[in-house]
Task: inverse folding
């Protein structure tokens, strides 16, 4: 007995976040990526026993959540709604171990301002500074811990009280595997308008690494085709190898075509999938065409019919194992 083929989404997804059409960041070290879709409902009850007669569903919400293992300042900047500054800034060296000989030692950086040292007995003193050399009065030959400012080229962001988190397009991409053939493609989840919550934690732990969590809500936007109404997200399956569209039937239109001599007209083909699937357009170039009487009309490989002479004929359109017929009348 043949084993049934099944598909699975495995592991976490890679992430891209676009703001105003520009790439803000990507993430390929996610620990968790998830999409939560919820709806509110209102029960209508009545009758004997106060039975539930109907549930009115409303208020659908979509909330993505991403947790990254990688430290990336862009994640924090997007949540805080601020730019990343890059340039010179005074930063701290904390408790740098410095060996003194006769009370004199050398710092790894050139300090800006005062240098504070912790002595072996736990007391704190201020060192004399000359370039990156320090002198600690009465210290002799020993080791101290120095804390001081120095100037460096850095990246930084400012978390202020007024900026709001960014809104952009969120794309998640996860691998799709099959239990018989291995990886067969990927699934992409595209959230056209994702507003970060602005809430985040930076947890520095003794074990493990610091993670960054990005969560928020999808905002409804109008579908580009103007047919679906407001949408939150699109879920797309992308095969590893390009394959033909599987359909249960096709419909070639127009079903009856009337032409004058030398006129041309395009045949359009729609694939009927049935079940939960919507109908799909099929490229005529992927179909085969057979004309019963080429003295009346001809057709090219792209489905364009050309009238030749007065009369009637039939064109058979074949796509895979399914067919449809178009009647052509030339007047």
Result:
């Amino acid at each position: 007995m043949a084993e049934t083929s099944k598909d699975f989404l495995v592991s976490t997804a890679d992430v891209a976040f676009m703001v105003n059409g520009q790439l803000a960041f990507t993430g390929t070290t996610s620990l968790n990526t998830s999409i939560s879709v919820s709806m509110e409902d209102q029960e209508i009850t009545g009758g004997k026993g106060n039975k539930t007669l109907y549930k009115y569903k409303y208020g659908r919400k979509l909330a993505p959540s991403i947790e990254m293992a990688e430290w990336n300042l862009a994640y924090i900047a997007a949540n805080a709604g601020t730019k990343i500054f890059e340039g010179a800034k005074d930063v701290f060296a904390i408790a740098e171990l410095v060996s003194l000989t006769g009370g004199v030692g050398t710092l790894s950086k050139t300090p800006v301002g005062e240098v504070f040292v912790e002595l072996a007995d736990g007391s704190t003193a201020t060192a004399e500074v000359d370039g990156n050399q320090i002198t600690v009065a009465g210290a002799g030959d020993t080791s101290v811990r120095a804390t001081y400012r120095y100037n460096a080229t850095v990246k930084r962001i400012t978390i202020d009280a007024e900026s709001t988190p960014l809104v952009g397009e969120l794309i998640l991409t996860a691998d799709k595997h099959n239990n018989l053939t291995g990886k067969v493609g990927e699934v992409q989840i595209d959230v056209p308008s994702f507003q970060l919550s602005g809430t985040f934690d930076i947890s520095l732990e003794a074990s493990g690494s610091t993670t960054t969590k990005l969560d928020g809500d999808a905002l409804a936007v109008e579908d580009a085709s103007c047919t679906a109404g407001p949408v939150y997200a699109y879920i797309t399956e992308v095969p590893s190898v390009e394959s033909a569209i599987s359909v249960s039937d096709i419909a070639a239109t127009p079903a009856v075509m009337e032409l004058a001599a030398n006129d041309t007209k395009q045949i359009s083909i729609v694939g009927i999938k049935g079940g939960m699937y919507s109908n799909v357009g099929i490229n005529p170039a992927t179909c085969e065409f057979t004309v019963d009487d080429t003295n009346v009309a001809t057709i090219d490989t792209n489905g364009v019919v050309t009238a030749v002479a007065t009369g009637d004929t039939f064109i058979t359109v074949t796509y895979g194992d399914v067919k449809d017929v178009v009647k052509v009348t030339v007047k």
